[in-house]
């Protein structure tokens, strides 16, 4: 590709991103159904016809914004590697690291976060399907992570699908109160993460039900000479 074509492509990419960022502001301010393409292009300072050089319409642009948001969440969570954790203290530190990464990303993209909670489920069936797949992916990831932690003797046996759903629900509710309702607007990211981790660790000490018979693994035997012990305290 020639230098001229590279510059032209870079400018197209930049313009597309400008339209997307303007749309995030408009969707956040007016809601999806009341938002107009004319409002989006006005923020960027281009003709309305320019919008359709980059997007088929408002719904495609909205779907892309939601897709970007969901990818950011999954990518951040997927950066965690529970197989390298050997103690409850290591677990706390790693949960804190990933929790802060995710919380700070959500707050850095506060408008997109608010749009997801306020608008995403009420737009179109294909977006609902995208969100459903996101939750299935996230829950499967967390269930696998928790199963590994149990195998390493770091959390007690239990239904890891339920535990994953509970974890998602706790995080969602706190972020909803922080970003959308503003009841936790003064809460610092570290305080949010510390509270969530405290409840996760406290709730995974005692086994629940009969997980082995339900197909969930029992924790691995720990060597008597190992410095790492099964969880006995938070």
From TrEMBL:
GO molecular function, one term: DNA-binding transcription factor activity
Name used for this protein in its record: TetR/AcrR family transcriptional regulator
Keyword DNA-binding recorded: yes
Organism: Lujinxingia vulgaris
InterPro entries reported in the protein's UniProt record: Homeodomain-like_sf, HTH-type_TetR-like_transc_reg, HTH_TetR
Known DNA-binding region: 36-55
Keywords tagged on the record: DNA-binding
Pfam family, one: TetR_N
Region (Disordered): 211-234
């Amino acid at each position: 590709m020639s230098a001229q074509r590279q510059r032209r492509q870079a400018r197209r990419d930049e313009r597309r991103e400008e339209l997307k960022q303007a749309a995030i502001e408009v969707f956040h301010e007016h809601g999806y159904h009341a938002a107009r393409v004319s409002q989006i292009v006005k923020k960027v300072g281009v003709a309305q016809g320019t919008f359709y050089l980059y997007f088929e319409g408002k719904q495609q642009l909205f779907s892309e914004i939601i897709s970007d948001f969901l990818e950011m969440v999954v990518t951040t969570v997927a950066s965690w590697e529970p197989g390298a954790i050997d103690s409850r203290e290591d677990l706390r530190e790693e949960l804190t690291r990933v929790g802060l990464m995710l919380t700070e990303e959500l707050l850095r993209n506060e408008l997109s976060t608010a749009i997801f909670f306020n608008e995403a489920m009420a737009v179109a069936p294909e977006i609902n399907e995208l969100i459903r797949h996101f939750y299935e992916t996230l829950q499967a990831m967390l269930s696998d992570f928790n199963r590994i932690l149990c195998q390493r003797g770091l959390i007690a046996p239990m239904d890891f699908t339920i535990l994953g759903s509970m974890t998602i629900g706790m995080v969602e509710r706190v972020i909803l109160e922080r970003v959308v309702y503003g009841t936790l607007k003064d809460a610092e990211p570290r305080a949010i993460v510390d509270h969530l981790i405290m409840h996760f660790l406290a709730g995974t000490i005692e086994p629940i039900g009969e997980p082995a018979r339900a197909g969930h693994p029992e924790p691995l035997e720990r060597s008597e000479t190992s410095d790492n012990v099964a969880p006995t305290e938070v």
